[in-house]
Amino acid sequence: MAIELFNTLGSRIEPLTPSRDNTLRMYCCGPTVYDYGHIGNFRTFLHVDVLRRTARLQGFALKHVMNITDVDDKIIRNAALAGVPINEYTAKFEKAFFEDMDALGVERPEIIARATENIGEMVKLIEQLASEDIAYKTEDGSWYFRIAKFPDYGKLSGKDLEGMEDGARVDVDEYEKDAARDFALWKAVKPGEASWETEIGTGRPGWHIECSAMAMKYLGPDFDVHGGGEDLTFPHHENEIAQSESASHQPFARHWFHVRFLLVEGKKMSKSEGNFYTLRDLLLKGYRASAIRFLLISVPYRHQMNFTFEGLTESANAIERLRTFARRVDAASKNAALSVERNEELDALVVDKLAAYQAALQNDLNTAEARAAVFDVVRAANITLDNGTFGQGNVERITKLLADFDTVFDVLTDRDAAISEAAVAWATSEGRSDEVAPELLAAQSITEEQIEQLIAERTDARKRRNFARGDAIRNELMEKGVVIEDGKDGVTWKRK
């Protein structure tokens, strides 16, 4: 079945299906690697991840291209301040970006394209536009796109461009003014800046040209879906369309997918507000990577999300409920003494909620409704597990539901301790140990092997009726963020 997805181009929900064979061809704008990624950035990348995982759940193959912007105004400025070449400066933050993506469980695209490795393709595209008088050269050797030559300019953002002034130019890579201006395709060399010697002169590319050149290189002149944050709609994506369609004389991307901003505690995230957080900031505060992932995708991509720390705690608790439930189902599947072959009422509910889960994702990636369907099953099945009416015949469909859920949400496997440990190691190497929460340091001070040894000692103490020692061990583990639970199947433990 097709995914029904809102298309910014035309502002309507449309079926998203591959235009050729069974492969969904998609291009999504990646990071500008000038600093560590913040949670607003990662909300976009996570919802792109939801899109690709849902497409695969529908049976589609994927050819997903993501660019890495490793040269632009900010990078040049920051590298100069740091006193290092831009390639050395960007390598650090590109590495950090992919570490953060891995921590959040974001799948790697099939193709990663770096701007500095595709200068030749950008130059060829500019030459093609120049041959039709759509690109023009200025006295300083820079090249600009002549917006007046593209009558459809504004069709994505819906901006009123009647006041467009032919020949008025904007030189910066990013701008917020509604008034359209001819934008830079190629910037002439300036003292101290990175540059390339090319057929169109010595300089460097403007920001917008890279995505057009690389999308067409890897996906062809037309493809299925182009995604990114809502802030890219204008001017970046508008300019991509103008460049690409002027060169190819055919539609560029059929479907445009934009993820909305997030607020933090009800306010726009900014350093001046003191509410600006990178993923690493949150990990060092002791929050789990899985909880951050779950929270950032809990609100559907077309809705503005209010990120709160209360919500982050609730997200961690919700994941623990899911993991506990998955363990209970697994234990039940191995319990030969179950008295009921199949609880028919529960089975019917699971069938209904599995269909509801799939329908919610197909309906414009409604992650909130998809989540709710799964938790309805968790509540009902837990009751049957508690009262002894759960049967072996219920295991298969619930296992299928959990597998489909985790194909998209990917939070059931617990990787949090290793991710937190890596974050603490990074903070230590960067001289930022003072930013690590004390409780996280305490948790990192005890290994799994040591936990198991203490639990074994506690079990032995309780057998000898030395309950004081048993309680002391429980308290010691609690202080280090380890919770132990005594059950009929023995002692289990988890990190808080």
TrEMBL record:
Residues 356-419 form the Cysteinyl-tRNA synthetase class Ia DALR domain. Pfam families: CysS_C (PF23493), DALR_2 (PF09190), tRNA-synt_1e (PF01406). Its EC number is 6.1.1.16. The keyword Nucleotide-binding applies. It is an enzyme of class 6 (ligase). It catalyses: tRNA(Cys) + L-cysteine + ATP = L-cysteinyl-tRNA(Cys) + AMP + diphosphate. SUPFAM superfamilies: Anticodon-binding domain of a subclass of class I aminoacyl-tRNA synthetases, Nucleotidylyl transferase. CDD domains: CysRS_core. Its cofactor is Zn(2+). InterPro entries: Cys-tRNA-ligase, Cys-tRNA-synt_Ia_DALR, Cys-tRNA/MSH_ligase, CysS_C, Rossmann-like_a/b/a_fold, tRNA-synt_1_cat_dom, tRNAsynth_Ia_anticodon-bd. GO terms for cellular component: cytosol. One of its GO terms (molecular function) is zinc ion binding. Binds 1 zinc ion per subunit. Zn(2+) binds at residues 29, 211, 236, 240. Keywords: Aminoacyl-tRNA synthetase, ATP-binding, Cytoplasm, Ligase, Metal-binding, Nucleotide-binding, Protein biosynthesis, Zinc. A motif ('HIGH' region) lies at residues 31-41. The keyword Flavoprotein does not apply. A motif ('KMSKS' region) lies at residues 268-272. Belongs to the class-I aminoacyl-tRNA synthetase family. NCBIfam families: cysS (TIGR00435). Monomer. This is Cysteine--tRNA ligase. It comes from Terriglobus roseus. The gene is cysS.
